Amino acid sequence: MGKTGVVSIHIGAEPGAIAETVLLPGDPLRAKFVAETMLDNPACYNEVRGMLGFTGLYRGGRVSVQGTGMGMPSHAIYVHELINDFGVKHLIRIGSCGGMQPGIKVRDVLLAQAASTDSNMNRVRFNGMDFAPTASFRLLDIARRVAESEGITVKIGNILSSDTFYGEDPQAWKLWARYGVLAVEMESAALYTLAARFGVEALTILTVSDDLVTGEAVGSEEREKTFTGMMKIALETAAAL
Ligand code: HPA
CB 3.0 to 4.6 Å from 64: which of 6, 19, 75, 150, for a disulfide? Predict the structure, then answer.
């Protein structure tokens, strides 16, 4: 909150500096990469905690890209402030995930229709009861049609938002896999819950970076830079809003 007019605790941007549609990678360097390679006139609006955020133009429309960090507590802080302090209306997470089904392969692109979770965050929020975090159907439908017209195959279904990457039981994912859950990541249940709470639209688009069934994985540099299909779907969805 150092500068005059700055209204947010964790995002050091001036009012109006962030577009109504924001792409949300976990990795701030991926935010930088998307802004510098895919947006016109990108300007960095946030460097607080190194959680870079940029606003630029895509097909002439304003779009922002904001890193959120890994995991639901970090992700939820940025999403809360984007919505409540900066008036963001459309939030599109772009991230990586671990595939949990034999039919899901490394580099596949997924649209998360819903996000199951092992997190306690929603049990605290809902006094021990369950909430079903779901994507905005409008964004999901637009992204599906965009993918089809771009010739990018997407798989659509339930994902798991987990609180642990290195859990006690390395086989724990198999329980979720038995229920048809496609993949595991660490943010979307919080994103979908906050979008519902504040009446805005959210969607998660994921690229499979590792395959829990076979153990195959892509390297961290590829994770950061080469998920162009996912980025294209996200930006074309933003342009269609
Ligand atoms: N678990 C959680 N998040 C992930 C994974 C995983 O295996 N891979 C990519 N993001």
Answer: 19
